Amino acid sequence: MTRLVLHVIGTLLLGVLLCGAATASAPEMPLEEGWEYRWGDSPLSADGVPQWSVADDATDLWQPMAGIGNPPGRNQQDNLWMRHRLPVGEWLQPVLFISSLNLIGEAYVDGRLIYRHGQLDEDGSGSFAGWVWHAIELPVDSAGEHLYLRLHSTYKDIGLWGKVAVMEKADVLPMIVADTRGDLAVSALCMVIACLAGLLIIARPQQWRLASIGLFALATGIMVIAESDASQLLLERPLLWDYLAAISYFSLPIAMALMLEHWLPQCRHWLLHSIWVAHLAYAIAAIGLALLGLTSLTMAFPVFDILLLVSLSLIGLILLRYYRTYDTDQWLVIISYAAFAGVLIVDMLVAHGLVNWYSVPVNLGALAFVLVIVLISIRFFARSQQELSHLNTFLEREIDARTKALEAHAERERERASILAVEHHKSQELANLIDRLQGSAALESALHHAMEAMPDILHPLHGAFYRPDPKTGNLILATAWPDHHQAPDRLNPTPPIRYLSASHPRASSRPVNSDPAGSVGNSQHASAAGGSQQQPHWLLPLDIPRANQQFQRLGVLYLLPRETQRWKMAHSDRTLQFIEMGLGRLSLVLSSISLQEELATMSYQDGLTGLHNRRYFDELMAHEAAIALRQNSSLSLAIIDIDHFKLFNDRFGHAAGDAVLRNVSRMLSNSFRDIDVVCRLGGEEFVVLLPGAQAEDAQRRISRMTEALSESAFRYEETPLGTVSVSCGIASYPMNTNDPNTLLTLADQALYRAKAEGRARIKIID
Where, by residue number, does the polypeptide cross the bilayer (predicted)? Predict the structure, then answer.
């Protein structure tokens, strides 16, 4: 890097010195008129010299040429010969200076090769070698001779381009330095801006929006130096400079679109985003294909120019759409953008020969655009700093206020932490209570354990728990704490109230049958009740859900919140919410225990027929057998079985069979005394227990039932099912056995005999 900088400085100093020394040399002579051309490539002589480079070659085939490039009649020709008679002058070391030629070529004087750019093969073809300026050294004795140029181009243009003149060799370097010093200054300034933007982004990543300015400045700086004639003085690598120029040129619209997105947020249109994405994709594809040798770099420029022209037009339409919304800074951005876009379009027209050649100040247009953006950024930064200063002052005041608020908040948080610790401890006690209650089988037992745990869980609050009196509806005192607290013996009914407090009553859909003032039911505690009237108090019900969205009230919790060292009235809402949550959890557990009790009760009933089930029969049988033995009273038992019921189910289906079971059960229930008990043993078997009845009594009642059954034609839905018959076995104590506990076995034997004799009959055990 140091060597390159020294080389640049040395070259510039040499150019300055030569500028002063060249004042006495002969003036340059333009050669932009008087050229002749000839399409195609010359055949080679035996010694490899092109025959067209000799003066006596068929002069009548050369045609006059208007200008210095693109003569008529190309017809897809890639080879062109041009010639011009060299002027006579007083040059010490004459050279032919050419700004650029398309694309590669050789120079001859009287058959002698004096210059070559690129490499032409025998067929006159070759690869692109870069767009550079040329200083062709002319032989001293070549004045008046023809100069021949053998050119090859696959580009849309062929021939010479820019400045063409014979001049002193010593004047070339000063001329290039003089013509490009502005380019060098612009490039250096753009590079500095790009570096500053990069450093700001590194220092403050939140300033990433400066990347668009940095990208544009970097692309402009590289493009200016790469397209400048001074680039060859810095590093003689034409193709490298052309690739750098292409990359930077293709990057300009990307950076421009990104800057417009940043500075004109109202113009963030999907089309603007698509434009820079399309240019990025094109730049990657064009450079990549050229590097891979799949296409020529020269062919990428015409396509890009068309794409750029379309993009500039579309961006202009987007900007025009929102013209009413711009502020002063945005108008400056738009004006500078329009000026630079105009410079690019003019440069494009010159490059494609649509207007006469002259040096378009693209570098100045780019510099102006960058400077405007930088100035606007500085203004924006200055305003931001001023606003930041005001904001800092405001924040200092806010910090003072917030500090005081935070100190107060910290104190509240300490109190809250203490409350949370207490709540955590109480939650653990409640969880332990619930674990103990899970093992309770009876609701009253579980409620008794809960009342025993209330004083510890609700400490330090004073309170009591009241149970409803099923006769009067009043709430009777069940327990109170602490020991010295004298709570009312009972609470009188009140309107529906969920929570009651001397200061904050809350309405509810479920009533608490209690006096809002805690009135006393007897005179013994009148003074205590009177005291409680002057204090805030809470009444919270303990309910469990029942069927039909009803609730069963188990009791009411009566609390007197008093400030202590561990509890403040300021925490009353939170404490009340915590207690309500605990009551909710307790209610769920007690509801589960109550439901289990109900299920145990329901386990004695058959779900299909509504009769008592086998479990109930077993317990009843043991009970009645004991009574019969103790009182020496009669006890009869009959087992009834529906005949061929399995075949019935197979024929009509189980749903029809269930309907028949329900009808038979109903007829059995209606055929016996109130003291007789009908149970379903299982399947199609039923058992009837007849306390105090003889076997003949049982047979008589069952006979009436079977007669009615034989006359009953069953239907299920619209299907006739016909009639069914039953078989019955009867046993009686003490007629058939001395042990009433064997009646079921004996009746079952009698039933077996009835079925064996043909069914549809009643048998009494022998």
Answer: 184-203, 210-228, 240-258, 270-293, 299-320, 332-354, 360-382
pTM: 0.47
Query: Comparing C-alpha atoms, which of 720, 656, 626, 730 is closest to residue 687?
Result: 730
pLDDT of residue 500: 40
pLDDT at 161: 83
* Architecture, CATH, for domain 439-600: 2-Layer Sandwich (3.30)
Burial of 124 (0-12, 13-18, 19+ CB in 10 A): buried
> Which among 756, 742, 672, 754 has a CA at the least distance from the CA of 708?
672
pLDDT in tens, 296-346: 888 888 888 888 888 888 888 888 888 888 877 778 777 877 777 777 777
What is the CB-side half-sphere exposure of residue 301 using CA atoms within 13 A? 18
Which residues of the chain are modeled with pLDDT < 70? Answer: 1-25, 55-58, 205-209, 351-367, 492-535, 547-549, 563-570, 601-602
Measured CA angle at 760 (ends 754, 761), to 5 deg: 50
User: Beta 726-733 vs 762-764: how paired, if at all?
Assistant: parallel
Provide the residue ranges of all domains of the chain, joining segments of one domain with +.
Answer: 2-177, 180-328, 439-600, 614-764
Q: Tell me the sheet residues that pair with 476.
A: 467, 490
Alpha-carbon distance 96 to 588, whole Å?
106
Q: Is 28 helix (H, G, I), strand (E, B) or coil?
A: coil
pLDDT number for residue 89: 85
Q: If 0-12 CB within 10 Å is exposed, 13-18 middle and 19+ buried, where does residue 649 land?
A: middle
| Residue corresponding to tokens 């809350």 | 506
Architecture of domain 614-764: 2-Layer Sandwich (3.30)
CA distances for 227 relative to 241, 367, 371, 634, 725, angstroms: 7, 15, 21, 129, 116
Tokens of 764: 């009494």
The arrangement of secondary structure in 2-177, i.e. its CATH architecture, is Sandwich (2.60)
Residue of 265, 178, 188, 267 whose CA lies nearest to 220: 188
How is the chain split among helix, strand and coil, in percent rounded to 5? Answer: 55, 20, 30
**Tokens standing for 48?**
């490899």
Identify the pLDDT of residue 216: 80
DSSP 249-315: HHHHHHHHHHHHHHH-GGG--HHHHHHHHHHHHHHHHHHHHHHTTSS-GGGHHHHHHHHHHHHHHHH
pLDDT for 513: 39
CB 638 within 8 A of CB 730: yes
pLDDT confidence of residue 507: 34
- For residues 580-601, one letter each, b for 16 or more C-beta atoms within 10 angstroms of the residue's C-beta and e for the rest, the string is eebbeebbebbbbbbeeeeeee
- C-alpha to C-alpha distances, 399 to 559, 718, 726, 746, nearest whole angstrom: 43, 86, 95, 97
**Residue found by looking up tokens 């029942």 in the block:** 546
The two tokens of residue 449 are 């354990």
Spell out a b/e string for 662-673, using b for 16 or more CB atoms within 10 Å of the CB, else e. ebbbebbeebbe
Of 124, 125, 145, the residue nearest 43 (C-alpha): 124
Give Cβ neighbours of residue 43 (< 8 Å, ≥ 6 apart): 50, 51
Phi, psi of 688 (to 5 degrees): -120, 125
pLDDT at 728: 96
Let me know: does 185 contact 193? Beta carbons within 8 Å. Answer: no
- Reference 307, options 330, 279, 335; nearest CA is 279
Q: Which residues contact 68 (CB under 8 A, 6 or more apart)?
A: 31, 32, 35, 159, 160, 161, 164
Distances in whole angstroms, Cα of residue 114 to Cα of each of 141, 148, 155, 615, 690: 13, 10, 24, 126, 142
Structure-token pair, residue 2: 């140091």
The pLDDT value recorded for residue 516 is 39
Structure token digits, residue 155 = 């580009």
Which residues sit opposite 97 in a β-bridge? 135, 165
Q: How is residue 44 annotated by DSSP?
A: B
